[in-house]
Amino acid sequence: MELTPKDQFRFTSVALSENSGIPVTSSGVAIGITSILDFPGEVTATGGIHMLVAGRTDGAISFWRTRKRSTPSVFKDAVLVSRQRHSGAVASLLYTEDARVCGGVKGVLLSGAYDRTIKIWDFWEKTGAETCVQTLRGHGQTITGILFSRGFIISCSLDGSIRTWKCDPKAAPSGRPAPFEAAHVVFGDSALNVARLSERVKGQSPWTLFIGDTAGCISLYDMDDFGVIEKRDQWQLHGRGVSDMLVQPTHHLLVSIAFDNSCAVTDSLTGRLVYSIRNHPARFTG
Fold first, then answer.
1. Edge-first strand listing for the sheet containing 207-213
2. Partners of 256 in the β-ladder
3. How far apart are the first and last CA of the chain?
4. Contact indicator for 46, 71 with CB cutoff of 8 Å
């Protein structure tokens, strides 16, 4: 498939297949997608990645597989997934090779969209037809964030809810991904923009969720082994909605940016503001 200027859509989110420990930066991913749009055909990216996936505003998903497992990776022949596409723009993508959910397949893609659903995709279907194996429903508005850890999907939405979904490996059909079922739901005080997960941070629970909302707050939630979420704290760090976050567990730091043109570096254990930057008149985007 060749992408040309006449295509009436834009990319909204990206995901990479897991690799052999070679990191790929977000800027590298952006360059890769720009290259695909500007120069249809082969695209070379650093890092031993095997598949690049991009969500689109028309609800479809495009992806590019490498011709062989090598470094650098050469992407060839974009394939459009449209048969079971979302009915709204794709907002979040996440790829996992966790054995608990993958079953007999190499990897599973999770997508969340404006149509309020989460879709689970088997991109390694033996017949060659990429298949949506399950659609999860429960959120009342756009799904803005998807996380995955230890057999759980954690999703947040503009309806203010955080939901957990637990996979059941024993119920997986032969050679297919395991199905998910709803585990727990909690509601925040505002619409939720972004979610990040931190595991095994000293002084915190095994799972700590950092949730940024449209009011400029970041809330902390603890999650147990059954997917039950409980709110622990809330920090007002920005004057407008949080647009992105980065958790650095080793040094207990949380970096967040917001629509008020600010960037905040915070102690992830106490919520103490370590450093703040304002970028007038432009806004930080990532």
1. 192-199, 207-213, 217-223, 229-236
2. 245, 264
3. 29
4. yes
Task: Give the predicted TM-score (pTM) of the model.
Answer: 0.80
Cα angle 75, 61, 170 (rounded to 5 degrees) comes to 100
Token pair 């005080």 in the structure block, residue: 189
CA dihedral 98, 100, 105, 106 (to 10 degrees): 10
The set of residues, in sequence order, having a beta carbon less than 8 Å from that of 7 and lying 6+ positions away, is: none
CA 17 to chain centre: 12
CA 226 distance to own-chain centroid:
21
The phi and psi torsions of 243 (rounded to 5 degrees) equal: -105, -25
Beta bridge partners of 264: 256, 276
What residue type is 69 in one-letter code? Answer: R
In this predicted structure, the answer to whether residue 136 has a pLDDT above a threshold of 70 is yes
Task: Select from 134, 209, 222, 220 the least CA-distant residue to 178.
Answer: 134
Q: With beta carbons less than 8 A apart as the criterion, state whether 195 and 154 touch.
A: yes
Q: Express as a percent the part of the chain with pLDDT over 90.
A: 31
Find out whether 7 and 57 touch, Cβ atoms under 8 Å: no
Residue 233 burial (10 A CB sphere; 0-12, 13-18, 19+)? exposed
Residue 65 has pLDDT above 90, yes or no: no
Distance, in Å, from the CA atom of 33 to the CA atom of 256, rounded to the nearest integer, reads 25
Which residue's entry shows tokens 């703040």? 276
